[in-house]
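Schema walk-through. Below, the input block comes first and the output block second. Nothing else is stored per chain. Lengths vary across the set, and this one has 722 residues.
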Amino acid sequence: MRIAVEGCMHGDLDNVYKTLQYMEQINNYKIDLLLCCGDFQAVRNEADMESLNVPRKYREMKSFWKYYSGQEIAPIPTIFIGGNHEASNYLWELYYGGWAAPNIYFLGFAGVVKFGGIRIGGLSGIYNARHFHLGHFERPPYNESTIRSVYHVREFDVYKLLQVEEPIDIFLSHDWPRGITDFGNWKELVRYKRHFEKEIQDGTLGSEAASQLLEKLKPSYWFSAHLHCKFAAAVQHGEGGPVTKFLALDKCLPGRRFLQVFELESEPGPYEIQYDEEWLAITRKFNSVFPLTYKSANFGDVQLDMQDSRQWVRSRLLGRGAKPFEFARTVPCYNPSQSVSIDSLSENPRNPQTESFLLLLELPNLLDNAQNPASSSHRAPDIDSEEIPIDDIDDIEELTEAKLYSLLIFLIVVLVASPSSADLSFNFYAASCPTAEFMVRNTVRSATSVDPTIPGKLLRLVLHDCFVNGCDASVLIQGNGTERSDPANTSLGGFSVIDSAKRVLEIFCPGTVSCADILALAARDAVEAAGGPAFQIPTGRRDGTISRAANVRSNIVDTSFTMNEMIKAFSSKGLSLHDLVVLSGAHTIGSAHCSAFSERFKEISKGKRTLIDASLDKSYADELMQKCPAGASSSVTVNNDPATSFVFDNQYYQNLIAHKGLFKSDSVLLTDERTRKTVEAFANDQDSFFQSWGQSFLKLTSIQVKTGEEGEIRQTCSLTNG
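--- output ---
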């Protein structure tokens, strides 16, 4: 069985399903099941928005409503749990689990189901110690306090899961089990999530309830989300005991690691979701103490012997089968062509699936019969600023930072790059080809996994394209007299990666994504694939129709250039002295032919050379002369960075300080007073380099772009459409 796991959905079903279909096509396999680890946002209409704990100005309808209405059908069976950004009124209708839409199953506030013999368990919500021991007192319509507490994990649901004795194959939780970072590379995690470090060291990061379940259930796999990053761990349960493979995933956004596909041994298909006998028995046993006010459950009233309950459930399932009851719509669906009053939609009906489920187990429906919490004599817990889950605050900050970053990038594009580049925009392909960036990124990652030299080649390719008549993919065009045919470009590589990405995009989005955008995105993604920073760039470039070899030599930077010559070349493209130092950092990956630095040596006898450039470290020079003796083949290459050849990092600047810059144009960055301090700063602070790289790269890929009606969208990147 092949299973896809997704982190935080945030209502973006269209893009996730299209991405999975793309993966199926390029890998020639079938995905049998999709699991989502929360923040699913099953919003059916405008009224559901009122139960979604997201600041009003950030609320969006997204795409779940299409699947609820039947306009779209989930192409892959989907199972999800709830997180802390949900249409909580709808999930309460399905407290015990059920179809949220055709082929999309909610596991319930806690639940276990079977899928082709695989047992899948899950716990919805996030942990909050103050609310953990309370009952489910919240009811729609929610107020400012209950909209934040309704998704907090409750002891009652955890206690039921702790009664599970039979093996669980896969478990889902939204927040991470507390202490899970002890079993993975937490130091790498805090490198890009610095604010986690104190909680990790204090032992407070994650859910105590999830930690208890991990220790008791010992599932083969555990998947989480919530903290918007990818993190893997392996938990050994006692000496020689079973191992739980843990993986947390990010949210569905370009450049984020939100999907993972893996295979699990199972019975042969076809597969379908079925009720789990043991879980139904536990549900039936504990329903009598279901806590529906602030008071906690009285577990002392429950006899824990499950045998009678198991036998009873088994007999019921033999009679009607284990297939869940069919989906039923309970409220009107969102209609983008109509404006409706929220009051006309604000009803909280009983869900027929829940009614049928309770009839099957001969249990009363308690979900809407509880005492109104507002009239309860039991004092409500205080909700103060400390009680607001920290990730709610993080999400707001993240959204704010994203808007500020987008504004910064916009200003850079408008003020620094050419006027036409102002027509570029973020998520340019959101409507016309929403998975475009994923397809490019996946192509780059696949190619890099086979050939680690690919990132360096793609970076050099985009530099040579943008410096000659702007970023219009003219360097990709083949033919006599084109830029690609010029001797300065004959050693360029990475063309096959661009062609591969274009072929896939033409299948899914014909005539939509330009080769210029593919090249810019591929170079950006190459940096991330090599360990560098991830960042967004705007798109909307169009492809040039002119490519002349005569334009190459007068525009590109030669490795023998002096500082003044480089400054002149960069300033002519709208790039600053700071950009010059930053973009030279591309030499932290990639390789060069011996001829690119041969002027630093002098041939003294047949086959021997001597160093004539005093700015080069002698031992490093000896290594270079050994690799590139006089008369060496023109195919011989040397890595730009002798220390970390295939890793995008700040080692390049450390090499410069050690006088180990490969090119003359590298060494002058240290010897020239105008750039020395920046080199030293980047050598000591990789984060500073990474931050500057994103800004300078965006300026580079915005040089003289063609937008609007200019140029064309090539069908094949190596040929113009004419």
